[in-house]
Amino acid sequence: MSAQKLVLIRHGQTEWNKAGRLHGRSDLPMNDTGIRQAQQLASELAPQGPWDAVYSSPLFRARQTAQIIANSMGIRALHENPELMEQDFGNLEGTLVADGADEQRQLLVGTGETEEHLVGRAVNALFKICHQHPGQNVLVVSHSALICSVIAALTAESNPRMANGTYIELDPLLLINHVSREPLWH
Across the beta sheet with 78-80, what order do the strands follow? Predict the structure, then answer.
């Protein structure tokens, strides 16, 4: 049995997001706009609940977003999961990127974590989270590259985009179907 509802949330805006810089594992807080985005997310998602748990990447911008949402909704189950961390972009972190243009995304290959590894660890983490909360509704706060790579891998949607402070509901069956084709990462 799996989670009933799984919602993936991209953290609120940071100064680097505003400037168009590639974050990766750089650990930055949200700016005022990001804080407002997190508060707005809580308002939008609250009536879609009840929500049983919130999971977050351990990076500060994601934890901030998750904490604002959890506090606003009175959710006590807030969990950090390192497998939800953003892709490691290696020495390209902090560089200016024009909205993840395809040519620039190709430059990222080989400078840090591969997209294949990112998808493997993310799907593994989300699969485990779903099975830890059978029949429950779960929120997961993470990062653009992770969420978009997972969506692309599970739905064959080419080059999905996700703005700061937005969310997408993911059908837990997509995770089950994917894991049944690919072994879990250890």
Answer: 78-80, 53-56, 137-142, 5-10, 167-170
Predicted confidence pLDDT, tens digits, the chain (186 residues): 677 999 999 999 999 999 998 888 899 999 999 999 999 999 999 999 899 999 999 999 999 999 999 999 999 889 999 999 999 888 888 888 764 444 455 555 556 888 899 999 999 999 999 999 999 999 999 999 999 999 999 998 887 889 999 999 999 989 888 776 655 554
The pTM is what? 0.90
Other CB atoms within a 10 A radius of the CB of residue 106 amount to: 9
Which residues belong to the active site? 11, 86
Copy the structure tokens of residue 149.
């790579």
Q: Which residues pair with 21 in a beta bridge?
A: 96
